[in-house]
Structures are given as C-alpha cells and as structure tokens.
Amino acid sequence: RAVQYSGYGGGAAALKYVDIPVPSPKKDEVLIKVEAASINPADWKIQKGMLHPFIPKFPFIPVTDVAGEIVEVGSAVQELKVGDKVVSKLVFWKAGGLAEYVAASESITVTQPTGVSAADAAGLPIAGLTALQALKAIGTKFDGTCSGSNILITAASGGIGTYAVQLAKLGNHNVTATCGARNLEAVMNIGADEVLDYKTPEGVALSNSSGKKYDYIVNTTADGKWSAFKPALNCPGRVVDIASNFWNFVASILTFFSNKKLSIVIESMGKEDLRFLLELVKEGKLKTVVDSRHPFEKAADAWEKSMSGHATGKVIVVM
C-alpha cells in the first residue's frame, strides 16, 4: 500500500491510498520495509507546485525521510544486508517514502544504531542534516573544544530549529531562540538560554535580555529578512540562511565581501553527517522532538498537521 497524489494542489484531501507492486531494487539499491516516515515542509510544498512544471511526475508518492528494515538487497550492494535497520533520505524528485516498501540507493542509506527508534531516526535526514550543516558552516565543533559564540536561532520550535538549538548547545554556544508563545517552554527544555516570543516587541527586534548582539544568526524561517537581521548582528557577524527568500538571496550576493554578511546553506546528503547525528541520538545527546505520531491509515492527518505550520518538532507517520 502507498499514499499518492495525482496533481498539484489539494492538500491532505488529495492524498489517496493505492495498491502498487512492491518495488524491485536495482543492483545498487536496497528494499526497505518502512517502519516510520517523517513529513517535511518540502513534501507538501512540492505538492503545492514549488517545482512546477518539472517535478513531480504524476502520480507521485511523496516523502523522502524513512526508517525501516532491509528485506532485499541488489547484487552490487556492499555494506548493507537483509535484516539491517536503516534510515534513508530518498531523492526528492522520486521520493516514495509514504508506502509500506521503498527501494533506496545504498549511497543514501545508513544503518540505524541499536537503541534508536525508527521514529527518532526518520526525523533526522532533512531537518537534522540541515541544522548540522548550518552550524558547521559557522565553524561549530561538537567535541567540547569550541569556545562558543552568541547566536540566534529563528523558528526554533520547528523540525530544523529543535535540532539546531540542541546542536548549538553541544557546540558551547550561547543560544537565543525565537518561537511562538505556546512553545517557549518546549524550546527552553531543549537547551536554549533565552527564548523570545516572535510576536512581542523584543521578538520582533530580536533583542535578548543582555542587550548583546549576535555573532551568528541561523535563520530557519522563510519570513526572516536581512533587513531585520542586520541591526542585530555584531561586526563582523553572519547570518546563515537555510530558508532563503528572494531578498535574502540578493543580500547573500550584495554582502559577500562585507563584515556583516548573509550566506545561504543548502542541505546535502552526507552519510558521515547522518551517522554522526544517529550516534548523538544513541548517546542521549540529541533527541528528535516529535510533535505527533500518526498511523499509516491516517497519513492525511499528518500531512495536514505539517501544512498547518504549527508543529512542534517532527510529524511522524508510523507504519
């Protein structure tokens, strides 16, 4: 069984259950019996037409972040074997994760450590890797040797933001975070030193109680603007933008040689990075903040929750 849609738009109501053949893995692929899948904003933005008219090819089975058990391997697969618990980040133009079985390339699949649940693992690929790569872009080290900087993380209660706050604290940073009023306590509980309600005057001004400016700002919201970030930055200072809009893209070019600059980080699949995140979860140093778990039969509810923009952490579909 799989969930698919057959055209742009329609939201959760357009998702339909279908019976399809179990995929046959190619020589470099593994067949995964999916145990959990994580819905990301990119999934429903593609449905809305973000990449129209190029992607997707209809009918389309969405979702890229999955965890499960290997039940078959291709002839050229070298490191993985039947019975391995794994997590995979499927290529976004093919996706296929919202199904009972999916074929995934060995190159985008890593083993899941003992003690890490499928739901926790499935939350990591897009959101966890994006957060990690944003923090590595500002030179963060996670071995206790980092002196730490004064940083701001926007939309810290979202999937990327919840990982970013925890990783920033592992890097010894002093973290100010922004989120909605209902999530202030949740973000404090994952390690933020100070949390601002983004609707208050302090939140709008990005102003912490110490009055100090930020060495770095990690922006995870498409509503964040360079014009708002620039006054809050130290000189030198840098915004790392992972949810870029047109004006921030322009700012990334115009500020390239400036002391205050904005740079865009685009998440990429790195197997070593994903292994690193999984080990942190295994060691109890990082957790997947799960907003809600939905059975496969109610995948539309999970889709709708993610589309609402009010999820705290990750929305998970459990098979």
Q: What CATH architecture of the largest domain would you give?
A: Alpha-Beta Complex
Largest sheet: 7 strands, mixed
Low-confidence stretches: none
**Number of helical runs?**
10
Portion of residues in beta strands equals: 25-35%
Distance between the termini: 10 Å
Helix % is: 25-40%
Query: What's the CATH topology label of the largest domain?
Result: Quinone Oxidoreductase, Chain A, domain 1
Annotation, overall tally of beta strands: 15
Mass-distribution shape: globular
Summarize the structure in words:
- The protein has 319 residues and is an alpha/beta fold.
- The protein folds into 2 domains: 2-112 and 289-318, Quinone Oxidoreductase, Chain A, domain 1; 126-264, Rossmann fold (3-Layer(aba) Sandwich), CATH 3.40.50.
- 27% of the residues lie in helices and 26% in strands.
- The strands form 3 sheets. Strands 3, 4, 5, 6, 7, 14 and 15 form a 7-stranded mixed sheet that branches. It has a 6-stranded parallel sheet with strand order 10-9-8-11-12-13.
- Helix 3 (124-137) packs across helix 4 and helix 3 (124-137) packs across helix 9.
- The longest helix is centred in the middle third of the chain and has 14 residues, at 124-137.
- The chain is globular and about 60 Å long.
- InterPro entries: ADH-like_N, Chloroplast_QOR, ER, GroES-like_sf, NAD(P)-bd_dom_sf.
- It comes from Aegilops tauschii subsp. strangulata (Goatgrass).
- This is Enoyl reductase (ER) domain-containing protein.
